[in-house]
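Key idea: predict the complex, not the pieces.
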Amino acid sequence: MEYNFKEIESRWQKKWKEDETYRVNIDKKKPKFYVLDMFPYPSGAGLHVGHPLGYIASDIYSRFKRLHGFNVLHPMGYDSFGLPAEQYAIQTGQHPAKTTEQNINHYREQLDKIGFCYDWSREVRTCDPKYYKWTQWAFLKMFASYYDNQKNCARPIDELVAHFKEKGTNGVDAACTTQMNFTAEQWNSFSKERQEKILHNYRLAFKADTMVNWCPKLGTVLANDEVKDGLSVRGGFPVEQKRMKQWLLRVTAYAQRMLDGLEQLQWSESLKEIQRNWIGRSVGAQVFFDVEMADHSTRKLEIFTTRPDTIFGVTFMVIAPEHKWIHELTTNEQREEVEKYIEQTKKRSERERLSETKRVSGVFTGAYATNPFTGKKIPVYASDYVLIGYGTGAIMAVPAHDSRDYAFARHFSLEIVPVVEGGNLEESSYDAKEGKMINSGFLTGKDVQQAIKEMFAEVERRGLGKQLVNYRLRDAIFSRQRYWGEPFPIRYDGEIAVPMDEKNLPLELPEVSEFKPTQNGEPPLARVEGWKYETSTMPGFAGSSAYFLRYMDPSNEDCLVGKEANQYWRNVDLYIGGIEHATGHLMYSRFWNMFLYDLGYVCENEPFRKLVNQGMIQGRSNFVYRVVGTNKFVSLGLKSQYETQEIHVDVNIVKNDILNTEAFRKWRPEFENAEFILENGQYICGWAIEKMSKSMYNVVNPDYIVNEYGADTLRMYEMFLGPLEQSKPWDTNGIDGVHKFIRRFWRLFYGKTGEWAVNDERATDAELKILHKTIKKVGEDIENFSFNTSVAAFMICINTLGECHKREILEPLCIILSPYIPHVCEEVWHAMGHEDSICDAKFPLYNEKYLQEDSFEYPVMVNGKLRFKQTYPLNASVKDIEQDIVLKPEAQRWLEGAAPKKIIIVPKKIINIVK
RNA sequence: GCCCAGGUGGCGGAAUCGGUAGACGCGCUGGUCUCAAACACCAGUAGGUUCACCCCUGUGCCGGUUCGACCCCGGCCCUGGGUACCA
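Result:
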């Protein structure tokens, strides 16, 4: 029988579906293992070969774990709310629900062809009301919660209200936007509106007036991780800063816990580092400086510094142009100039600010502060190098030891006083945190690190401020002025946000007449007549923040996830996906999960135990070279003889860089009469590694590979391409090698003639040796995610076995190969007489006995150089070997240096010296 | 600027513990089969020198430790990623 992958693959895919081979249920007799892929956003372009890379790896790992007796949860779904479907809807008028549905069907078709072992009965779609009911539910819970810093967890907001009624803010230590102070009497006398407004300062989902990233082109606000270099990540449109009232999630309350939690996780160091930087913890001092206002009253200006040791060197202060005191600080003489500066900075977009970071600008406010340690009067400036969003929006400037303050001082000719020894202040500031203190009163002569400690204490002793931790992390902006997202289950009673009763969830997304914003710039939901709810919708990350929990219990109508299911499946053991979600999804879902953990709805604090980032697959573009002004195309090797123009050619009509000239003529009408200047009868194309994109004609569709070579070849080849975590170009040049391997494997069962060839003869020691070596190597490689080297091990195994048709060898080989090439293995497994699916076989154990060598190689001197060439039987003594060594000086040194007391003979590594 | 990861043949990449560098695959060269081609199979393939054996050089660069270094240490160069007037 010939290896007919088309017939085999479609037959088994159908059978697996009918038998529900991959359906999984709670089974307390077996240990659980949860393997998850980041679910895809179903875009109109369909899957390309980059998508399945991670899916194939997780599929292999899932099958591998199942063969080891684990009850493996391996689900898949769709992140189906989002901008592209809506942009498309605006352009074409097609309902996003419709295009999303079409795209999902297309994705499913493509996924099915690759033979994944997903339990599709657990599929979730974030745009399905049955699913987003629980997104809305979690939002309501956040709305009804605050964060208690003492207990270090989220608590019902009712507890806080009760506390306010009795004691006011006295004894409250809660995460909030601004510190508040009021008594119980005051609280009880406040109007309902005022009380509600105060509570928003504490709620974990709250509404606030904040600076947001506004994208006019998309007509919506965006979260920080959705903006890069002043442009929207989706679409690449300019983003500006704007003050707006928005829903936010208080993720900052969890900053420290998210930071600490990283320690326990098996994530790559680089990914943890990205999250650490994003959280951006810095320990410093809050210090109040006396400042004289324009009306001659004195106020205390709060700043944050990580260098309290340098306070003696503070010669001026700077506040952000958006600082709330700026008008009260500015003197009449300076008013005009300051107003002008404020206007200027407002106009400068975020992008300009980023691109002109070296430019120094600012203005004197006319106000003076007092340096609490030197007692000197120091001027207060306003400048946009101080950001309103970080710290307090005001700084103490130490030009001698901060490069930005230095540049500013130079520009405005301000005093520069060195307080740490070192550097050359004529050229630049000395920023390093090492050296001896000078000009610093009681700190003079001390080491910088020591001075920092003493200054913290001194600041607190004098009541000037205290030690404080600051985070770079911002609260997440949670509303989008868009249609295709989860509606907020919130209606308004005047200004007061009233949550919907959770019993009435979901609040379904209504139909709208148009998907565009309204005339006066309101979100599309404002078009709906009688819609009394919030008109913005939730952002893309809302639906993906808890989907991994829903898979555990996808059809439960009473809760997000039932207790029993959650207790059994707990959290994700292995999560595979792209690194691009480091500061978005992977932050939000940790926050979301921790919140649900605090409230007792889930039993694990961290959602993803181990995480692997698969690399990006880049495209390998091909070029043809047109002789300028003609319709002649010259092969790569001869192009230097002509003046040519490089043209991208569809990689699907190129094989091993050789152009299919017939297909090229048919590719586009203008090439119909193309002529070719060949070398050795072939047209050789040029190539380059670029991003995989439609416009470069380098997109390779997995369907194409599946048709040409079969799913098994695609699966194995994607793994053979290189290390999983590394970005690499898609290159079909090597695919024949893998396909050849599978055909060779097939021939072990069906022989050269195609007749069934498996027999019951006993295997030889040599055969068993190669089998057991392979079992060991492959098992270890899959555990370590070294899929590429395990494929190599399979190839060596088949090459070494030669014509071996023995069942004793082939059965275990079939099992260990089945995670990679499930269709072929299932086929021959059944041909060997097995009834059950190979998925339920047992992964064979290797036997140490067969791994030992019967001889070993020992270093021998040849012409004065050490060589590892002489082979000895296993039982050779050290003396035997030493007699053979030509004792040249190098060999002597080798023996002396190694000072062997005992030489242990290890088969693989030849020798191992024990001192 | 700071932080992280990496640099090995014509190409993708191996070398899991400091012990024969280049596994495995692609490509290329030669051969077998064939009227011929394709497929398949066999052999060779880091570079230099050589008929060949030998020998010499070789894991980004310079230096160090060691009997021995792709691997450890110090300094530099380059590539990729993250982040940024973050006080």
